[in-house]
């Protein structure tokens, strides 16, 4: 029987209190991982998640950090190492939210925020956590990208620019640290159903669903399942990949 077993692994999820992050926390913990619950502002949700993980019999710690600030991430690394030991799995999920509009109307600050939270977050996480992985000859970096990076639709420019920059960084990182047994991959969700949709009864969107080959929106759990796969030994020979989880809405070509 094949199963995903993360027993003995320590996983860090940035943006862990967000719509997708919280499901990743639960899923990796169910697979056996101890979890670092990163948050920026939502301390209450972080505490709820910590209690859930501990109820599963796993260790969990809460760490507040600004992912756009290197010193803040390095301080997070020190706190995590002291309390749980070296991190085996890094999931870069946090991103700054903003109001989308046209390039001519989008503020330059929004472009900067996406670069900082998509590209520089991943740079800082790499610098903070890759050295210990290199020393141990194992590790996983998983970046949460987006189907938008392939769509390039109107009003997506700042988000797409940040995520495409992240894509380039992750592909280079995969080449640079692969020789040490570390994989670097990206999960690219489509427009995903989360708790917010369930609470507001907004799960359905006929216009969007009609364009998706599977004729439905994906769920937060389906995103977390792919993250768990990439975090596990089952994905040991996959690196440098951009994997859409979008029901076929975007399809990378060869």
Automatic annotation (TrEMBL):
EC number from the UniProt entry? 1.1.1.-
Gene3D superfamilies recorded for this chain? NAD(P)-binding Rossmann-like Domain (3.40.50.720)
Name the Pfam families on file.
adh_short_C2
Q: Which GO terms describe its molecular function?
A: oxidoreductase activity
Is-annotated flag, keyword Oxidoreductase? yes
| UniProt keyword terms in alphabetical order | Oxidoreductase
Q: Which SUPFAM superfamilies match?
A: NAD(P)-binding Rossmann-fold domains
To which protein family does this belong? Belongs to the short-chain dehydrogenases/reductases (SDR) family.
Q: What is this protein called?
A: SDR family NAD(P)-dependent oxidoreductase
Organism of origin: Paenibacillus mendelii
What does the record give as the organism's lineage?
Bacteria, Bacillati, Bacillota, Bacilli, Bacillales
């Amino acid at each position: 029987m094949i199963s995903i077993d993360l027993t003995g692994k320590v996983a860090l999820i940035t943006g862990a209190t967000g719509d997708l992050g919280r499901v990743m926390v639960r899923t990796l913990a169910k697979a056996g991982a101890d979890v670092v619950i990163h948050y920026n502002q939502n301390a209450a949700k972080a505490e709820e998640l910590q209690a859930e993980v501990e109820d599963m019999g796993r260790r969990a710690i809460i760490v507040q950090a600004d992912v756009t600030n290197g010193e803040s991430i390095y301080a997070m690394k020190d706190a995590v190492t002291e309390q749980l030991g070296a991190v085996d799995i890094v999931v870069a999920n946090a991103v700054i939210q903003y109001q989308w509009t046209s390039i001519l109307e989008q503020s330059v600050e929004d472009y900067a925020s996406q670069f900082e939270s998509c590209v520089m977050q991943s740079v800082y996480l790499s610098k903070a956590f890759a050295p210990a992985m290199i020393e141990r000859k194992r590790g996983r970096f998983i970046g949460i990208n987006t189907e938008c990076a392939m769509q390039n639709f109107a009003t997506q420019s700042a988000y797409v620019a940040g995520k495409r920059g992240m894509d380039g960084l992750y592909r280079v990182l995969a080449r640079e640290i692969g020789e040490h047994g570390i994989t670097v991959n990206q999960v690219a969700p489509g427009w995903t159903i989360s708790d917010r949709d369930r609470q507001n009864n907004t799960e359905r969107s006929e216009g969007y669903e009609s364009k998706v080959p599977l004729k439905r929106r994906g769920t937060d759990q389906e995103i977390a399942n792919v993250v768990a796969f990439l975090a596990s030994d089952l994905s040991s020979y996959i690196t440098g990949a951009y994997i859409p989880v979008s029901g076929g809405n975007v399809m990378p070509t060869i």
